[in-house]
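Final report, closing paragraph on structural work. Over the funding period we assembled a curated collection of sequence-structure pairs, and we close with a single example.
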Amino acid sequence: MPLDIVLFPHCDLHLALSSTRPLILRVCDRTAVPAGGYELARIAPGAITVSFFAPHRPPGERLAPPLPLYNPGDGQITATQPGVYLFQVRRGSDYIVGRLQVHNSIVAWWFGNDSITTALDDVAHAQPSIYAKFSDDDPPGTTPPIGTDLIGDITGHGYVTLTSTRPDIFQVDGPTGPPTGPMAARREGGLRGLLETGIPASHGTPGTPGTVDLTGTFLNQTQRLPVRVVNYAKHRHDLKPVQTPNVAHAAEQHNIVFLAEGFRKSDEETFDEIVTRVVDQMFDQPRHQPYPMLEGSFNIFKAFGASQEHCATVAYRVADGDQTTGAGLPIPYAHRVSNNRDVYTLRELVAKVGLPMRKERRTNLPDIWAAQGLIVRNRVDPTLLEAWMKHQGTGILHARDTLYGMHLGCRWADRSSGSPAVDPPASDQTGTAGLREFIAQLYEFYTPAQATHALTPDPRRHPPERFAGRDYTNPGNLILQYLTGLEYTFAPFHHIGPVWEPDDGHFKPSRGLVALITYDELDGGSNVNHNTLTALTTNKDIGVEFEYAAGDKQVMRRKPSSKPDVKCTETVDTVAHEFGHSFGLLDEYENSGGDNPKAPATSRDDISGDNASMLGFLRVNLTDLRDRQIDVTKVKWFALPRMRQSARLIIDSAPVLGGIEIMIDKRHIAPWQKIAAQNPPIEVHLRNFQVSPEGFQLPPPTGPAQILTKLKIAHIEPALGTMTLVGPALSPAPTFAAGSAVYVPLWDAHDQVRTVVEPAVRKHLTAPTPANRMPLNVDTDNQHVNDEVDIPRPIPDFQAPCKSRKLIGVYEGAVHFAGGFYRPAGACKMRSHSGDPDPLQRLFGADDGEFCFVCKWLIVNRVDPGYHSILDAMFYPKAKKNG
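Its predicted structure, as stored:
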């Protein structure tokens, strides 16, 4: 079954009326294959429909001719006049939206890379960027302006003829053969590595040069681009120890590895310093608990690979003029420019009305937008409008040549397909059925596919056959190839790399414990590849330093610092937070007001993620969606037990006569001897916490194969660390795997096991009155983003902890939305991972960058549940005593 549809050349197209080369649109089905990776097959052009829309024309004319045309016979796009058009490509219910700019002519072109690295593989990996300068299509005094850009991205359009100067080392892919099938599904201009470059000659075997040129020819100009080919899958003895207590049994351990991205060969010492500082802080500072208490349970490695250039590729366009937001900031800018809280942010306005046209001169735009139904008029003020008018960038930044090909943000060109497609309306007349919905879908183009700080694999270095987006595991992509080939640097060269290779069918402890440190002063960080690696930068700036090359082409390059000032504290904060995702935790912060559109609808299933829940799953009233009462007995973390004593099984349990035998670390047997000696006997529990392949632990399983209660300790062998447990339901005794927990629970006054939620809090939230069955937030506004901590409302006859934001319960505002999603505490590292350096702010409730107790509990449970009792004694947010 197809995973999605993929559009070639891309989603931000350019057509020159004077060009003799056609612009061909190709749409492919992408399907996962059992061997790993994805397969593309072109869909017949006649099975595709393409609908164009002229957003800058007056209502009534936006769907009227002349519009560009799509030929269902061969997929060619034709047009008759310059302009800016939005379009919808559709196959059945699947769709992709894009933008087409029609120009009179192309006047110059250039490569958007200074060099490029591709992979030795059976598919083409790297695709060099190609940029063009177009004619100025706006005659003086045109109102409204035509608005086409002077500089555009013509990558993959076929205008430039690309040729390898050494086809034995790399080949250039392009669509060939019939209009459908595998050959027609290739990306135009992809570079397929056949022989690794930079290999010295030895024993009579010819070597390879360090680079091989790619030539491009267009407009009677030929330009050259150096190309490197790397064999990412080969074995390398590059895995060096940082802290490695148990290398020989790495497959059973939790292993962390730090990789270098954007560091040049001369920067290895800098990389080593960063890793040392990150590890020291992460495993020493109390606010990063439970990592410090679990330090001995991790192997920590590093592996350095050199890049040709510093810094990641900046994929988004940047503002290059004097404007309210400042030169060099991302387009669209995410933060507020007006002091009025009810006014849109620039990003919100761009998502609703698009980008300003070049040479835009109209001053009544808010009235025009409101009349078109695009905005709420009073949410645009003069400050915002002025900033939006200047929110433009002329050039496109060159891509950077780094080892793993990571990029920040995304291009307008890079979009994924969605479903369901909205049918084009019968006309553009106001009130026409489906018109508003169709326009809204087209304007999705102006909402970037990911945030500007997202650091993810660049689609121009990671082909669609190997990379389907950050939410997929993407087996076989070049980063996983590199990881899987890593061997320990010392004899006997243990092949440790496979511990980080994800398996979507089985849980692997080290999945996702990969930190790809990128040498870049810009703010960036993401957990990508379906929780298989964390990528982050070394600084927190948001403005891009850049320069234009001499001449009239508008060639635009970054100006990276020779040695960025590494903000190690922020780097540690990001690693600690992003590894939380690898432990099954979701983001808890908010950057969109209101509900996630899918959150309110009644659902039989909760959202995936151990620290988040959803209104549609928790709601009490299944018929009236206006009623936001929730049933907290369904909140997955409410069942997590607190523990007085705990230990981790180091081998699988085994049945013995009348009971079950378990083994723990014999160094930790003394407390269990005291428990066994007590009279009356202490009840012991045995729990097999299951972990999904993606790392999720909740909701906790409750069957007899997962949890046994009412057990007693019948016998202990201190020298071996074994205990024999007896009790009901032990015939036959189930097997509890190594890593399971044996523990003595804490009990409340009613002989119930204490959970992470205080009994008084649970009682308050389950009371039958509607006011009780609501989240604990004192601030009940779920329409506006709150980037601060939340304080719980008062609970009768209960004194919250001194830092009441740590009280465990259920709080609204999580997973990027202010409403509809819930989290366990008012503050957590998954909500704000940086600590506030101001002690007064900490005193009065500012976030201190710690994990909440639920997230601490979940990480401990994954790595070593033997620490549960220590965790509870040291960090449970206990209620203040009454009186």
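The two ends are 64 Å apart (CA to CA). The chain has five domains: 4-228, 236-312+463-582, 319-389, 590-624+757-875, 643-745. We thank the funder for supporting this effort.
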